[in-house]
Design goal:
Radius of gyration: 15 Å
Number of helices: 3
Strand order of the largest sheet: 1-2-3-4
CATH class: Alpha Beta
Number of domains: 1
Largest sheet: 4 strands, mixed
Distance between the termini: 53 Å
CATH architecture: 2-Layer Sandwich
Helix content: 25-40%
CATH topology: Transcription Regulator spoIIAA
Number of strands: 4
Shape: globular
CATH superfamily: STAS domain
Order of helices and strands: EEHEHEH
């Protein structure tokens, strides 16, 4: 008997791609960054060193746990005299970042 709610087919997956582009490591992210996927993002970013750009063009949702993950990695990299920059967020994601006061991480 159905209760009217669809069960998810599998655990949420965040699509992540990492490539070296000159002096930067670019991480392309697709999907939703939330409580269910933040650990995938953290595990991708944690081993990276030097200047990192996170391309958010294909991110459709970002919640506070995703923001905390990005901020923690930005803080870690800053302690290593490196940077984490956020590139091309969709309008909704950009708005969330601005409301959270993270404008300084946005690439201009």
């Amino acid at each position: 008997m159905s209760n009217g709610f669809d069960a998810p087919d599998a655990d949420p997956v965040l699509e992540l791609g990492v490539e070296r582009c000159g002096a930067f490591t670019v991480v392309k992210v697709a999907g939703e960054i939330d409580l269910a996927t933040r650990d995938q993002l953290r595990e991708c970013l944690a081993p990276l060193h030097g200047n990192v750009v996170v391309d958010l063009a294909a991110v459709t949702f970002l919640d506070s746990s995703g923001i905390a993950t990005l901020l923690a990695q930005a803080t870690r990299l800053a302690a290593e005299s490196a940077t984490l920059r956020l590139r091309r967020p969709a309008p909704l994601v950009a708005r969330v970042l601005r409301i959270a006061g993270l404008d300084e991480l946005l690439e201009t």
